[in-house]
Every structure is written in structure tokens, then in C-alpha cells.
Amino acid sequence: TDMEAFIEAPLSIAQLAERRKMSVRQLDRIFRKHLGVSPSEHYRELRLLRAAGLLRQSDLSVAEIAVACGFNSASHMNRYFAPRFGCTPSAHRRQHIQ
């Protein structure tokens, strides 16, 4: 999908809608109906899942992973990562190394 293809440099929701030849409102309705979340919430979830995978499978720094997953900084990623996974990115990495 476009969201998966543009993880590192996320497209805006307006750009995603335009690529699908629909309005932002139509895109939002479809996401809420089928996934129960907004397009931006789903996009963020994909980016967080990619970050979690990179934390487990790479030696990249947390800051490098944040940028590779479309976040402005490690702290920006952490703001969403900790509530989603119940720990910081560094702690997530440590848990999966053992």
C-alpha cells in the first residue's frame, strides 16, 4: 500500500486520498468503517510496527530508527511507542535481545 511504501517519508492524508482519487473525508470514512481508526492512526500504527521490528532486528540507533520510520526524532517516536508497547524503544530492544 502507499502507507507501507512511504514509511520513511510519510505522505499526508490529503496526498494519500489524492493518490486513491477520493476526498479526505471519503478516505476517513472507509478507514473508520473497516478498521475502526482514522487513516492517520493506522499510518502511525504501521510506522510503530516497523520501528518495533527494526529495534528487534537491527543495530540501528533509536534515533536512526525513528527517522527511518517517519518520526521527527527519537522523542517524537517515544511519545507514541511507549503507550503502544508499554515500554520505551530501548527497553523494547533489551526485552527482545535476551
Brief sketch in words of this structure:
With 98 residues, the protein is mainly alpha-helical. It is built from seven helices and no strands. Helices cover 71% and strands 0% of the residues.
Can you offer a commentary on this structure?
With 98 residues, this protein is mostly helical. It is built from 7 helices and no strands. The protein has helices spanning 2-5, 13-19, 24-35, 39-57, 62-68, 74-85, 89-97.
Sum up the structure in keywords.
single chain, 98 residues, mainly alpha, 7 helices, elongated
Mean pLDDT: 95
Estimate the strand proportion. Answer: under 5%
What is the makeup of the main sheet?
none
Distance between the termini: 33 Å
Gyration radius (Cα, Å) is 14 Å
Unreliable spans are none
Number of contiguous helices: 7
Number of strands: 0
Structural class assignment: mainly alpha
Helix content: over 70%
Global morphology: elongated
Order of helices and strands: HHHHHHH
